[in-house]
Amino acid sequence: MFGYFAISWDEWVGADRLMKHTEENVLKQQALDKKQGVDKNSKSGRSAQTKPKASSEAKVDKEDTKTNVAKGKKRKTDSGIEKDSVSVKKLIKIQIPSTLKKQLVDDWEFITQQDKLVKLPRTPNVDGILTKYLEYRSKKDGTMTDSVGEILNGLRSYFDKALAVILLYKKERQQYNDAVADNVSPSTVYGAEHLLRLFVKLPELLAYVNIEEETLLRLQQKLLDFLKFLQKNQGTFFLSAYDDSSKIAEGRGKGKDN
Length: 258
Known about the structure:
The chain is mostly helical. Helix content is about 55%, strand content about 0%. Strands 1-2 form a two-stranded antiparallel sheet. It is globular.
């Protein structure tokens, strides 16, 4: 169990409940964001295949098409998630800071529109960022709190399990296969760019975990504080530009030859 927050971070959600991370359905995710009070741009780097079918969503979709860099019209697909859909009201709301929302938009554009990739391995990696936050929080609080450490362990666990399932774009799949070998944790290879994507998906993932409302609110506050930490260190943790995927592929070829 998750100690102070009484959350089982090992209560993983099966792939059939997760929404696919595809370019064509980006705006569907943004539509739900508005419905649950989360800024639409926070999901520009994420996408979903299906969402609750409400007439209000259709209107939101039209607005998103005009205001976001994501292109193409939404289309309805069958994924089975609607059978297990959790009420929007139950979803934890994670308000992503404006500069990080822009980071998500840039991330989406670099990969899907400009055919670029994050060069791996990243420094600092996800493990390093979580460690830095723990040090920052401990110094600020004047003590090492078990709850913070447990939350960070939970985030690491979710990241390692979610990356290959819902956090990658199709164009990143081959790079993942090359970079993450057996017994290698994605959190030691990937960095802030992909960690931020996890925060867009967390409301969906945590919706399937049995959490009391009071506990959920405390967890939400802790996650928001972590996002502010990412924002404060945005210039250090995030790349300002990605590499051409062709160059990365060429580097892989040379590495194999050598």
